[in-house]
């Protein structure tokens, strides 16, 4: 098995396990798919940093013209650290921005604040006035559109904490118009994550376009519509045509935008990085308890929490398959919780202690959601470009973990 031009076996031997491995080429290719599919109108692909915030990946994307969708001051610091020139291509989302984060973003000169409440807009205006820097904002509207996905990552219904009721948006834009420190720059929307069909995106953007037309009639000419992120991938094995998926998505969004004359922003995260990444782990033990066979590997829920948190499916493949019939097993980690599993009752080719397995499609929300639970150092990360593999984050040491503490 390979990642780009590098064999997974040799990477695991060289860098140890657990290990995240990413293909730079696939990430760049995915960015290109969006850029090409949206080429008929002025646009900016703002990569959702939360999906995978590795500095090397941010740099890779910035060099190819990507912008960024951030949700914290910390994510902005990451972008500024590797691509200060990209500050003007940053949109700032999130329901709970602090004054300090707003100040940091104002000073950096970001493109747009995606504002999620009237009280946030009030704070933004106050900070802008204080710093004497005009704030470009979009209201993140809640379009009340249902999108089929896991309830924890669905955001576009009025029962969710996200955004401002779309019916109230017009009034808020109108009253903001009298504040000279606020500039109504866009309207934004994000209906959820891992959405597999293009239809809900079209529906949400239709509602946003209608609002944009109303705004124009009222003299508020916004420059941008931000369609958010959320385009899903296929976590199950089998053919996946990424170009076709992006094409369908772009067509639905484009049709819904209609005659909107401005710029389109999109915020894909998962789609750019998920399938470019795998988590490599070594089998520690194989044991039977009652009727069940457990394959215990050296990666755990602290390294990849998606199965535990969302009952998410990740394909698991032995890197050097052994002969023999597949067996029904649970693949689990060493953490002391029954929720620490990667697969339950899954058919897996036979494995023995010492064997290497790859957990696929782990490039998004894997390392980004990792923790030090059970005082486990987080994995190292490797980026493969062509044939060259390079360590982009060393494995944590005990000094890293114990450093901030005092007994
Ligand atoms: N924009 C906003 C405002 C968001 O909240 C998100 C994701 C994105 C863009 C990017 O969405 P994407 O294209 O990656 O679907 N941890 C979960 C996913 C959480 C998504 C949160 N927001 C998971 O592992 O499935």
| Poorly predicted runs | none
Sheet with most strands: 9 strands, mixed
Principal-axes geometry comes out as: globular
CATH architecture descriptor name of the largest domain:
Alpha-Beta Barrel
Domains counted in the coordinates: how many? 2
**CATH top level assignment of the largest domain:** Alpha Beta
Mean pLDDT, as a whole number?
Answer: 96
Quote the beta fraction.
25-35%
Q: Care to count the β-strands?
A: 20
- Over all CA atoms, what is the radius of gyration? 22 Å
CATH topology of the largest domain: TIM Barrel
Bound ligands, each once: ligand LLP
The separation of the N and C termini measures 46 Å
Number of helices: 12
Derived from helix and strand composition plus strand pairing, the structural class reads alpha/beta
Helical content class: 25-40%
Query: CATH superfamily membership of the largest domain, which one?
Result: Alanine racemase
């Amino acid at each position: 098995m390979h990642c780009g031009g590098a064999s997974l076996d040799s990477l695991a031997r060289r860098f140890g396990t657990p290990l995240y491995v990413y293909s730079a080429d696939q990430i760049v290719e995915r960015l290109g798919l969006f850029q090409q599919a949206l080429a008929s109108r002025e646009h900016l692909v703002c990569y959702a940093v939360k999906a995978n915030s590795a500095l090397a990946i941010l740099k890779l994307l910035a060099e190819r013209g990507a912008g960024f969708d951030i949700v914290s001051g910390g994510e902005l610091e990451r972008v500024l650290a590797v691509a200060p020139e990209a500050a003007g291509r940053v949109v700032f989302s999130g329901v709970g921005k602090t004054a300090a984060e707003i100040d940091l973003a104002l000073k950096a000169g970001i493109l747009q604040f995606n504002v999620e409440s009237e009280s946030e807009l009030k704070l933004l205006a106050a900070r802008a006035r204080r710093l004497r820097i005009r704030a470009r904002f979009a209201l993140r509207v809640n379009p009340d559109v249902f999108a089929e996905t896991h309830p924890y990552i669905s955001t576009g219904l009025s029962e969710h904490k996200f955004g401002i009721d779309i019916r109230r948006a017009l009034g808020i834009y109108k009253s903001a118009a009298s504040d000279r420190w606020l500039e109504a720059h866009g309207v934004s929307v994000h209906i959820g994550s891992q959405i597999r069909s293009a239809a809900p995106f079209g529906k949400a953007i239709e509602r946003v376009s209608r609002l944009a037309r109303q705004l124009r009639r009222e003299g508020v000419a916004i420059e941008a519509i931000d369609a958010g992120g959320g385009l899903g991938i296929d976590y199950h094995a089998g053919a996946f045509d990424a170009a076709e998926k992006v094409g369908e998505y772009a067509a639905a969004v484009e049709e819904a935008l209609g005659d909107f004359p401005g710029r389109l922003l999109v915020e894909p995260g998962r789609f750019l990085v998920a399938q470019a990444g795998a988590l490599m782990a070594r089998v520690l033990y194989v044991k039977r308890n009652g009727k069940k066979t457990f394959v215990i590997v050296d990666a755990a829920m602290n390294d990849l929490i998606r199965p535990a948190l969302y009952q998410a499916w990740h394909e698991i493949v032995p890197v050097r398959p052994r002969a023999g019939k597949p067996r029904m097993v649970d693949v689990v980690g060493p953490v002391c919780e029954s929720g620490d599993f990667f697969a339950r009752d899954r058919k897996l080719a036979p494995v023995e202690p010492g064997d290497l397995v790859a957990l696929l499609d782990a490039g998004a929300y894997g390392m980004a959601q990792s923790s030090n639970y059970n005082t486990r150092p987080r994995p190292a990360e490797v980026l493969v470009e062509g044939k060259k593999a390079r360590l982009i984050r060393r494995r944590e040491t005990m000094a890293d973990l114990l450093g901030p503490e005092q007994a």
